[in-house]
Queue: 4 jobs
Job 1
Amino acid sequence: MTKLTLSVAVGEYDRTRALTDGSVQIDGVAPVVMNLSPEEIFFRAFRAAEFDICELSLSSFCVKTAAGDCPYVGVPVFLSRAFRHTAIYVRTDRIKAPADLKGKRVGVSEYQLTANVWARALLEDDFDVKPSDVHWVRGGLEQAGRLEKIPIKLPSAVRLEDAPAGATLSAMLADGAIDAFIGPRVPSCFERGAPISAGSGRIQWRPRRTTSARPATSRSCT
């Protein structure tokens, strides 16, 4: 029997390597495997459904499924496992505690990006910083002009604007045009030694809940 040819797009993970290098076979399938960045996979999947099997953004999948127009069926296999406290980067000359984010301008590559959904949840649940407390600025981290991969409709109380044409969030963070950035990728200005801290670098991110005795940590991994 001829094997079914299916395209498979995933990131470079140790947990999928046996499938991508052929060490483990998929019964009845001749996979065409592509190791791509999650950003490319998600954009191509939700804009054009280009892959038969692929890693997906959990937040985008939930939004599309709730709207009844998701082109994929979800399987409960979680490839990227990260603590999203690590996704928060702040200017240390302005942000001394999580509450200082209220009223500040915070950059995001996409509002509905999964890492950002988790980060907003922990900011609200642990530190009482609600999405409506922040002025969100959307744009590309290192390349200007990034778009949301799917349409979104936000509550009226949430303020979201696009970054100026040609501007990147990393440059805006370094220049002080925004006060913080939330996302799964490390801003290049952080690596260059700008006055930026990843969560607990200089800030004690202690949840308001008395059940937790340890500060939350922040450093990025994807």
Job 2
Amino acid sequence: MAQELDGKHVVITGGDGALGQAVVQAFAGAGAVCHLPIHGPVESAPAAGVHLTGGVDLTDETAVEAFFASLPSLAASVHLAGGFQSNPIVETSRADLQQQLDINLVTAFLCCREAVKAMRKHGGGRIVNVGSRAVEVPGRDQVAYTISKAAVAALTRALAVEVRGEGILVNAVLPSIIDTPANRAAMPNAQTERWPKPADIARTILWLASPENRLTSGALIPVYGNA
């Protein structure tokens, strides 16, 4: 896998988060050149093989178009950007729902669209989105979040059918609660040893986004192990 990704250009959104950092490390370790769109300014020099582009709002159509248009030949695009909100439905406003759709669905949709444009120029590529276990097993008080992630799952499957035969494979991973410092702090009494680790999820994403994956497309891959 490392040889197949060596020198290949890969987009990773949400690369500054806990899962994102593990994914960037996995791809950089496999020799890929990682391009990370950052919403704020670039404040520090990135690691070798990592390129940061600041000021990219992934909910802004024009900004996403410009970012992808600036890239070299694209081998893979991994869409980790997103967010979580938990409220009972009677306390969930239309604005709350729209915020979850924007940050989870719209970001993935725009990046998928621009990735397809880029990949069609060079004969194919790999796209990986991030859904949630909530798509299959909804949690309590997570209606807006679940709707947005279910839409990402639908986007993944629909796009896989649309680009079938073009050398573009589209998949999504479905994590449960990920073992991150923020989640541990928010749930100090949870059985954190059962939560999936970012590095383990990153390995699954790496395979899905690599040329070694020659057949799998339209799949929603559970990445929660014993959780």
Job 3
Amino acid sequence: MKKFLFTFLILTGFLSYEAIAQKQVNEASLIYDVIATSSDGKSEVASLKGATLQIWVKGNQSRSEMKTSLGIETSIHDNAGGKAVVLKEYSAQKLMITYTSSDWQSSSQTFSQSEFKPVEGSRTINNYVCKEAVAQGSQGTGEVRVWYHPEIQLNNKAYFHAFPGISGLPIQYVLLKSNLRVTYTLRSISYEPIPASKFDWPKSGYRIMTYEENLQLNKGK
């Protein structure tokens, strides 16, 4: 389940249906509340109770941080250079996975290459009037529904690579796979300046492996 969630967590751009006046944003931080339940919504996943996803974007740099009771998973991505790193901190284990540009593209294929289709009508979520789009993941990896506010657009289209075709700010999105339903809802957005150090990679304290090495490790489990 953690692998499925992270595929979409860090995972972070968006669908162009019509030309509208947009607020173009170069720098912002966003916080999403995360709720994971059974597909029928009757039982909550205890390990993800109180989970949050925070995203920082500054120019071509982006950072996402998923916090749960199990630990923290962080991604730091340089859209200009194409390189990225994923940090996993669970109990006493601290792992750093390095990504080349092609590695990052490969890891984001589940929904990044899917066609998002518009849904009729609108919905107001946390005072944002939202449009809806839906897509099916590749190879039976589930469905994602996105409610986005078309009047705000982050200039960095690759900050959230699950939705590369959507033109607007995601206010809420729901990931569905078999018996799991994960809902992310925007709690707040800030346009305060973000220090460049927020996007620095750690220099020590982590076991380091490449994306390919991590894939081979997971195949052995």
Job 4
Amino acid sequence: MEAPAGKGSLAYRAQTVADYSRRAKRPEASVLVAGWAMSNMSPLDFLWSEQPLFTLRPEASDAATMLVAGADLVSRTMVMALRDVKAMDVTEGTRLDPEREGFYLATQVGFVAALSALARGEAAEGIRAARLVTLRRQVLAQFDAVALNGLAERDITPRDTLGFSRRPTAQRIITTRGQLLGNMHGPKIHEALGLTPPEFAKRKAKA
């Protein structure tokens, strides 16, 4: 087995795949990947798919790792924003798993295209910057679609034991969306993608 690039990662590349990557004459290939989705030692589903296998130079490989880290950060940020706007507690977070899956499905084609561009030797920084725009657009579109759903019925929704409506209010949506937008322009997502954050984001982070 080949050790993963990221520290603490549980993902290992099979030795046959690592060997192929080193001796392959073709720049691109595909590989079948499969595994169980688990929850508390209980199997939820068996997943498998055919994924492209790219042979990347070290710099391109680092950029690919950043693309994955950036998408992971954005998806987690989106889920937290949706959980807040829906007034969910942590134990209810799994109800938003379909939204995270939808996020990755919607951005998969662009991700593969980015990897292909890296394999061709295109400038990594430009690819990462373009990816940020794509991720930002998708997460805001998904947030709007979910957060605005059912907003018109908020006044007739039964309230919980503390007297608070479980439906999102307009003010909560506006506030949470503003925070989400700020995160999408903030230093953390730029750093995850290896990009220099804009000056206003640096100043806000220090404030």
